[in-house]
Write a structure and sequence with these properties.
Elements lengths: L4 H5 L10 H12 L4 H5 L5 E4 L2 E2 L10 E12 L2 E3 L2 E3 L1 E6 L5 E6 L5 H7 L5 E10 L5 E4 L3 E3 L10 E4 L8 H21 L4 H14 L12 H26 L15 H7 L6 H14 L6 E6 L5 H13 L4 E5 L3 H18 L3 E4 L5 H13 L4 E4 L13 E6 L7 H8 L6 E6 L5 H7 L4 E5 L10 E6 L3 H13 L3 E5 L14 H9 L5 E4 L5 H12 L7 E4 L12 E6 L7 H8 L10 E6 L5 H12 L3 H18 L18 H13 L2 H13 L9
Parallel strand pairs: 2-3, 7-9, 12-17, 12-18, 13-15, 13-16, 14-15, 16-17, 19-24, 20-22, 20-23, 21-22, 23-24
Antiparallel strand pairs: 1-11, 3-6, 3-8, 4-5, 6-7, 8-9, 8-10
Helix pairs in contact: 6-7, 7-21, 7-22, 9-10, 19-20
């Protein structure tokens, strides 16, 4: 049945006629693999039409043309007075319009003159250029054929994403060989109807006739996208089913102490409805015999930390330990400073462990963790170092979870007996994306801001007015306000007009005495020291010039002004995160988006979105719609699925369809889902 085709799918490309080991290695660099299946999942980017024209007259500079030409004369090239001269084949089309074919590679001069004999007609296809005198030129044609072999020039050429040493002719030749063998296998095997439809869709996208055939919502692209989504969603459904159907269990912890009522008493503010709802969902998870896997999504300043604290206090009622992982030392220190006071009032031992802890100090903390005395541990990746042991780890909380890899999260969970897992994310994610990545987790959304939080006033300003801006914020700085000033680059660059952080720092020092500099190329200890000094309410540092290293990990309630230079170069989500560094106190805060001279209409549109709303989820949806997932996620979200056929922006409806089908599939559907998981390499916990 369908499994028989996988022998061919798994064939190394070097065994396809005309490839060999050298070309296979080059394909590996482009495809990320060197099997037939890797090639099949690598689809063309667009279609280049090559219909034969009667004449060059009317063709535009830069057009790809295919035309019948008669050879009139040869002019061999070479080196003349120190200049390399091309070989020129002077031709004429059917209407006697002159066209010159040029070759610059002197090694093949005789070859080209023999292939293009005077007086003969040839079908030539390539890019048309016009010289300074208006003469039509085709440099190094893509195809040259005698008239009777015109069929060898594709009327609609699929253009593949390529790499060094791989031409489009090579891609086409390998594609043709693969589908030739595929048809032979299809005739020999008894494949299911679904597999035949899948292979038919693959063939259509590898032999497109128009760019519409490669459009996300084209018939065959949409069919392949659904198959890919179904494969991933079925894997997610199995993982969730394995977790929820007692495949992984642990004893329900018994309450020993009564700490939650006192926790609510010492809170300096009233929880929002969204916070309380999320806390209730977490507490319900604690009562189940299966480990919790919950993601809490909340906008900047929505109160996720207090939700995490409530969860840790609830776990402490059972006598078990909790850890809170932060992505940076600075953020860990800030969490510790905020939560330690509350723990002291509750009688809970709270400690912090980071890479800074050495010698006796570190050993004492490790002893306290191993004995169970420390009930709440806050820190960085140091919390899951090999020498760190816990007496009874019950809850793992990961702040800014996308900054920790899967292996790190797995290592942390291995420190306990199937501890509950709570992930926090201040990066709002559109629903279609969260379904993809977090489909095996339960999701809570904190969509309310704490009462009394004053909205940040956001404005955009051309960079020419930066001097006026400095004068405008000077009085506020003198009155105690602190300013973040963010630049995209560290050093001045000759190839970019973006203002460098170091250059802006030198300029602002002339206006503000307490100015600091912080960027990713600084030594980590030095960088943390600068950030801590800026966060200190008693520090004289009033202005911090920085790159995006401050996007997450610094809480300065007295910071009321955020200036972002070349804001049009940032994504919406990054701008929103940066803006969230201010407005954390009870004073009116401001965000000024400085844009450069070469800002595009799309750049202005992004800035307008920031000026119109402070809802992170609305901004995330807009970011997805405007830029698509590749640019939206960049390299920070290394765990995101890299799809072959799915377009997050255009296939939004297919996500829900695939998810519903994956949850409700029957045994026949599951056989097909398993086949698709093999094709798209979707792993499951059970390996199903």
């Amino acid at each position: 049945m369908d499994n028989e085709i996988f022998d061919f799918f798994n064939t190394d490309l070097q065994f396809i006629h005309g490839v060999g080991p050298v070309l296979a290695a080059k394909f590996n660099d482009v495809l990320g693999g060197r099997s037939v299946l890797d090639f099949l999942l690598h689809i063309p980017s667009y279609v280049r039409p090559r219909e034969i024209l009667d004449s060059v007259i009317g063709a535009q500079n830069g057009d790809t043309i295919t035309i019948s030409l008669q050879i009139k004369s040869h002019k061999k090239g070479g080196v003349f007075r120190g200049r390399r001269m091309p070989t020129q084949i002077v031709c004429a089309d059917k209407f006697a319009a002159p066209v010159t074919i040029q070759f610059f590679n002197t090694k093949f001069l005789d070859y080209w003159t023999e292939k293009l004999p005077i007086g003969q007609w040839r079908i030539v296809s390539g890019k048309l250029d016009y010289n300074n005198r208006g003469g039509a030129i085709i440099n190094h044609p893509d195809f040259i054929e005698v008239p009777e072999n015109a069929y060898k020039i594709p009327k609609h050429q699929a253009i593949y994403p390529s790499g060094e040493g791989l031409t489009q002719k090579t891609f086409s030749a390998v594609r043709d060989q693969i589908f030739k063998i595929m048809h032979e296998r299809i005739a020999a095997y008894k494949l299911s109807e679904r597999m035949l439809e899948f292979l038919d869709a693959l063939e259509h996208v590898h032999y497109p006739e128009t760019n519409e055939d490669l459009a996300p919502n084209g018939t065959y692209m949409a069919k392949l996208a659904y198959c890919e989504l179904y494969a991933h969603q079925s894997a997610i459904a199995i993982n969730k089913r394995n977790r929820t159907e007692s495949k992984i269990t642990r004893p329900v912890r018994i309450k020993k102490y009564d700490l939650i009522p006192k926790f609510y008493e010492i809170l300096p503010f009233e929880l929002t409805g969204a916070q309380q709802r999320t806390i209730d969902e977490i507490f319900t998870d604690f009562q189940k015999p299966i480990p919790m896997m919950r993601l809490v999504q909340g906008d900047v300043g929505s109160g996720k930390t207090m939700v995490a604290m409530a969860a840790m206090v609830k776990m402490a009622e059972t006598g078990a330990q909790s850890v809170l992982l932060a992505p940076t030392d600075t953020l860990a220190q800030q969490h510790f400073a905020k939560l330690k006071t509350m723990c002291d009032k509750l009688g809970l031992v709270c400690d912090i462990l980071t890479g800074r802890d050495k010698g006796v100090n570190r050993r004492e903390k490790l002893i306290s963790l191993k004995s169970g005395r420390t009930k709440i541990a806050i820190g960085t990746h140091a919390l899951f170092s090999a020498d760190v042991e816990y007496k009874d780890l019950g809850l793992v909380i990961i702040d800014e979870q996308h900054r920790f890899g899967v292996s790190q999260r797995t290592t942390m969970r291995a420190k306990g007996n199937h501890p509950d897992m709570l992930a926090l994310s201040a990066t709002p994610i559109p629903r279609t994306l969260s379904m993809t990545v977090y489909g095996d987790m339960d999701i809570s959304i904190i969509n309310e801001k704490p009462a009394g939080r004053i909205p940040i006033k956001t404005t955009k300003l051309p960079i020419e007015r930066v001097d006026a801006l400095v004068q405008r914020i000077a009085p506020q700085v003198q009155n105690g306000s602190k300013v973040f000033w963010v630049c995209p680059l560290v050093e001045e660059s000759e190839i970019s007009d973006m203002t460098a952080a170091e250059e802006r720092y030198e300029e602002l020092k002339k206006h503000f005495h307490g100015t600091g500099l912080c960027h990713g190329q600084m030594d980590k200890k030095q960088r943390d020291k600068v950030m801590e000094e800026f966060a200190d309410p008693n520090s004289q540092m009033r202005v911090l010039v920085s790159t995006t290293v401050i996007e997450v990990g610094i809480d300065v309630p007295s910071a009321t002004i955020m200036v972002i230079e070349n804001a049009e170069r940032f994504g919406l989500a990054a701008l929103h995160q940066l803006r969230g560094r201010v407005g954390r106190g009870n004073l009116q805060s401001y965000c000024i988006l400085l844009y450069g001279n070469n800002v595009s209409p799309d750049g202005i549109k992004r800035l307008d979105v920031l000026c119109e709303t402070d809802d992170g989820f609305v901004i995330a949806e807009q970011d997805l719609m405007m830029r698509g997932v590749g640019e939206l996620l960049g390299t920070r979200q290394s765990g995101w699925i890299q799809y072959h056929f799915v377009n997050y922006r255009e296939h939004r409806d297919l996500f829900k369809l695939a998810q519903t089908a994956a949850v409700n599939n029957n045994s026949e559907d599951e056989d097909w889902a398993k086949t698709l998981r093999q094709i798209f390499n979707c792993s499951t916990v059970a390996g199903a």
